[in-house]
Amino acid sequence: MIDLTGIISISGQPGLFKIIAQSKNGIIVEGLLDKKRINVYASTKVSTLSDISMFTTGEDMPIENIMHNIFTKEKGGVAVDNKADDKAIEAYFASVLPEYDKDRVYVSNMRKLFTWYNTLQTTGNLKEKEEKSTEDTKDEKAKAKVAAENKTKKASTSNSNVKTKTSAGVKKTAGVRKTGTA
Fold this sequence. Notes:
The chain is α+β, with helices and mostly antiparallel strands.
């Protein structure tokens, strides 16, 4: 699968953007092509690419999987040009995703997908997700368990060795601030 985390599309803005930071009243993003940073307000409609999917005859297909299919078909190269004629776009999309719903997926959707793919490919943001193997996750769980056991052992031994001292005649006033002079 292709890693699309942090890549967004903003309604009314051309191109794709990468999330840089949060601001007081929105997020700060950077354009993938022009590298300009802008502030996107909380009221602006924003879509993350990892949340977008396309209609198929079965379940909806996440755009990450479709881009992975294009990536493997083109061997990491550029997809079909989004300005090609409608028949070429439909034929290419059918070769990438043969089970797409022909009634609900329009040529404009396909063009936008190819534009996004080519933008990600030319800017170098088209990379595969690193999936952890089951052995790595087992090792991490075992290490976390051992660390938790050691932590509880240290906490129990340190509590038994501590001697508490109390001073006679001292009253504690927790949470009360004394003001004024005496």
